[in-house]
Amino acid sequence: MIHVRKALNNNVIIAEHPEYEEIILIGKGLGFGKRPGDTVAGEQAEKFFVLKNTEEQKQYMKLLEYVDESFIALMDDIITRIEERFKVQLNEHIHVGLTDHLFFAIKRIREGLGVKNPFRKETELAYPKEYAMAEEIVESLGDRLDLTIPEGEIGFIALHIHSALTNRDLAEINKDTQLVAHLVDIIEDSLKITVDKTDMNYLRLVRHIHHAIERVQSGDYMEEQETLKNVLQEQYPLCYNLSWKLMKVMQQKLKKPVPDAEAVYLTLHLQRLMKR
């Protein structure tokens, strides 16, 4: 049985849990009329979010000092929608990270300050499902708060969602996205081309690079393609040599070895891009 220690507002309570000891429960209307010692059960118990990690609890308590109650309820709705869409329980940090980000993003927008996101397109290509969810969130927020949210904000929200889905640190995901953008710059410079970012071949290349980074980080290497590698090296030397240059940059940035097999797939993607 979960007992209330203190209702912080209508949507947030501090409670005593038999397994996790002190926890923070977040849910629309969860704290309404609650007093110390009351139990949380029934339908309410099925809807709340639990912040078990003590550091997350501290961060969320600080967040409540400047985020108003209505916005907490709004974020509760948004996070519920994300979990229902992906049919998972998100990493609890999203309650702190996304709430804090959106609160200040909206504050900046209302003050007339712009939002710049140079990696929005790369984020959309890498995480299309998260990006689609973020688009819906931005549209819903705009309607409910009566303001226009810049397109760049969609990319930031998508990264928060991906971070919560994969249990990966947001800073790490940002580094990956920046690395992809850096590799694209190298490709444009080496091949003396300007990439059409609406081209399907560019989309495939960016997704492949993201997956390659994930494989390197997880140690899930691809099978060697020795015969094909020799053929590509002979037929497409420019793209083949560029693929090795990209792999070396990835290796330096990720501080992990990149398997030789990546040269084959990168060469094929680069050749398709160059033909366009």
Structure description:
The chain has twelve helices and five strands. The chain has helices at 42-47, 54-63, 69-86, 94-110, 120-126, 128-145, 152-166, 170-191, 200-218, 226-235, 237-254, 261-275, and strands at residues 2-7, 12-17, 21-26, 39-40, 49-51. A five-stranded antiparallel sheet has the order 4-1-2-3-5. Strand 1 (2-7) and strand 2 form a beta hairpin.
Secondary structure: elements and pairs:
Blueprint: E1 2-7, E2 12-17, E3 21-26, E4 39-40, H1 42-47, E5 49-51, H2 54-63, H3 69-86, H4 94-110, H5 120-126, H6 128-145, H7 152-166, H8 170-191, H9 200-218, H10 226-235, H11 237-254, H12 261-275
Antiparallel strand pairs: 1-2, 1-4, 2-3, 3-5
Helix pairs in contact: 2-4, 3-4, 4-7, 5-6, 5-7, 6-7, 8-9, 8-11, 9-12, 10-11, 10-12, 11-12
Structural class estimated from helices and strands = alpha+beta
Count of DSSP-assigned helices: 12
* Helical amount: 55-70%
Low-pLDDT stretches: none
Tell me the quaternary state.
Answer: single chain
Order of helices and strands: EEEEHEHHHHHHHHHHH
SS elements, strand count: 5
